[in-house]
Write a sequence for this structure.
């Protein structure tokens, strides 16, 4: 997989992508991540990338020219059309289903904004997938790009030492019929769950005990207990997940269709 991040502050993202699981995934060749400064594509002699908004108002708006040329320039580098992602608080809210979808792509180009955001023609002309990491406004898209890349890369097979660890995680496990190993998260009919409670040594800490069932070594009982706890916890903390997930299935299917259309049209332009 290849991920290109377009930003005005590559030095903010680069150290994050070099550490821990992401750094190891890069070193082992599972993913190529490159951070690029959008200014490098500016046609302005002073590498200007923003200008005042038409109609007046505060702040500056990111201009079309550098962003269009950056995205198109990277895509022309021989590895074919990418899934274009614009980080914006006005986008579709990121969730695990979208992360899984992106993790299955060969190539992503992420565009992080700054200032007041983007000239609207960047959205209409480049047809990116618009993604928000939550209903609040950051000063720049770098933190959002880091969140998205982290969530995506850890799903690439081999990125985590223990593949099992992603299977039972929050938003990944479902309440669909008991799964075969490796099938978690792939069953679109199931409702996403929060993970069950976890414990480690010591068995008793300040009078608080580890549930007896986890100490007995009966793996069938432990699985059943964990499943029941995950269901209970999800019902208590996130009763909204069921409805959200049903909507998610629909938007996921729609996005797959839209994305296939966009990728086909990029591929046609390449020929
Ligand atoms: N004026 C814009 C608005 O009201 O929608 C906000 C612009 S924000 C100050 C600057 C940049 O930060 C955005 O272009 C985007 O790339 C990034 N950003 C801010 N909040 C974000 C969020 N919740 N999710 C993803 N990116 C975000």
């Amino acid at each position: 997989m290849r991920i290109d991040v377009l930003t005005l502050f590559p030095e903010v993202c680069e150290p994050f992508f070099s550490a821990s699981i992401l750094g190891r995934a890069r070193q082992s060749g599972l993913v190529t991540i490159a951070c690029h400064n959008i200014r490098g594509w500016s046609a302005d002699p002073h590498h200007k990338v923003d200008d005042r908004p038409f109609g007046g108002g505060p702040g500056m708006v990111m201009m079309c020219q550098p962003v269009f040329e950056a995205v198109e320039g990277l895509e022309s580098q021989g590895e074919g059309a990418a899934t274009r992602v614009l980080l914006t608080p006005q986008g579709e809210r990121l969730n695990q289903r979208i992360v899984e979808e992106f993790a299955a792509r060969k190539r992503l180009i992420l565009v992080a904004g700054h200032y007041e955001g983007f000239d609207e023609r960047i959205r209409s002309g480049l047809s990116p997938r618009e993604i928000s990491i939550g209903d609040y406004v950051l000063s720049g898209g770098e933190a959002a790009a880091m969140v998205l890349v982290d969530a995506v890369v850890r799903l690439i097979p081999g990125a985590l030492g223990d593949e099992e660890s992603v299977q039972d995680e929050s938003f990944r496990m479902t309440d669909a019929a008991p799964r075969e190993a490796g099938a978690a998260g792939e069953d679109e009919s199931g409702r996403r769950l929060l993970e069950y409670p976890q414990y480690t040594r010591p068995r008793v800490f300040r009078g608080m005990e580890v549930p007896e069932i986890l100490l007995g070594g009966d793996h069938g009982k432990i699985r059943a207990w964990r499943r029941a706890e995950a269901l209970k916890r999800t019902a208590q903390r996130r009763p909204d997940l069921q409805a959200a997930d049903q909507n998610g299935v629909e938007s996921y299917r729609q996005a797959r269709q839209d994305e296939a259309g966009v990728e086909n049209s990029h591929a046609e332009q390449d020929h």
